[in-house]
Automatic annotation (TrEMBL):
SUPFAM superfamilies, alphabetized: MFS general substrate transporter
Pfam families the record matches: MFS_1 (PF07690)
Residue span, Major facilitator superfamily (MFS) profile domain: 210-396
The organism of origin for this protein: Muricoccus pecuniae
Membrane spanning stretches: 20-47, 53-75, 82-101, 107-127, 139-157, 169-197, 218-237, 249-271, 283-302, 308-333, 345-364, 370-388
GO molecular function: transmembrane transporter activity
Record's protein name: MFS family permease
Keywords linked to the UniProt accession: Membrane, Transmembrane, Transmembrane helix
Amino acid sequence: MSATTAVPATGAAMRRNVRLLFFCQALMNSAVVGQATMGALIGYSLVENKALATLPMALQMAATMAASIPAGMVFARLGRRAGFLLGATGSFLGSLTFAFGIWEASFLIYCLGAIPAGLGFGIAQHYRFAAAEVATPDYRPRAIALVMAGGVMAAALGPELVKHSKDLFAPFLFLGTYLILAVMPLVCMALLSVVALPPAPPRAANATPVMEIVARPAFLTAALAGAVAYGVMNLLMTSTPLEMMLCGFGVPASATVIQAHAVSMFAPGFVTGRLIGRFGTRPVIMAGVVLNAACVGLALMGKEFHHFTAALVALGLGWNLMFTGATTLLAEAHSPAERVRAQTANDFIVFGTVACTAFGSGLLHAAGGWFVLNLLVLPALAFALWRVSRRPARLA
């Protein structure tokens, strides 16, 4: 195998690599799903100013955004394996720091845990890009969708861990959960030792400037769709456990709703690639926009358990269609030599948006309530629908 050959591109070897990436994605997402269930509740219990309850999640998303640049450098210089090992290490240290913050009842320490955790989450987002790189062009949408479907395992595992381990070290609520979540990235490291991953790309003598890549219509559409998909999802998901708590629901109920949401986020990955192959990328993204709008309608119909569940299921389905479609569009917006710079720029935009929504979620919920919070996502969805319907995906 030459230095520029990534991995075997056809047959059983390709599918084996996709399966291993599926499990790596599942393990790394378990901590994120668990954090979505616990983070706002722990923040609410540790901080006096309740508007800051979602600050740890906001810091985690800011770290995820910031991780895109060093991650791009590591991927470009050392290859995918070194980058993913760095991400697993960050996730491990983040879980331990979260646990220490709970032990010390310190909101500051708990917030500090969000920094390495965000680094790990940011780097883990590149598993979907690695899936595109190990697959042949005709199999690429399915490979991306299947690796993203690793979140199904995380959806089943993360909330269940929260429900069954939250009282392991009572009265330190959720301490045991974080100690268990620290094991997940260690298992991921073991899988990374056997999966075949692309090496660092060859360095081009005249590299395309990042701004030239960012200015391409296909890139702009992909980045916008990804940012709106993740931003809307994060804004509403982060506030749901808080709203449920204010409505009298306990941790098991909110964990069940987050679990249903997470399953709906990732389970469609088994078919989304086929839908893109049959109907095209842009129609699938537009269907995701419609589902996200339906989430708002369902959320505003009432505040019973089934209202929260139905709304977040629609939200998860919409996210999957939009984000998988956006990732597929991004793969068509750059050449192989440009992949790391394009992916880094894309994730900086996407997770910068997510960081803003994570912080804004607590502020908006405290200031305007559940009704206003839901209505505010509609303009962003309308703009994404307009952009995707007008701009065809093309390389330049």
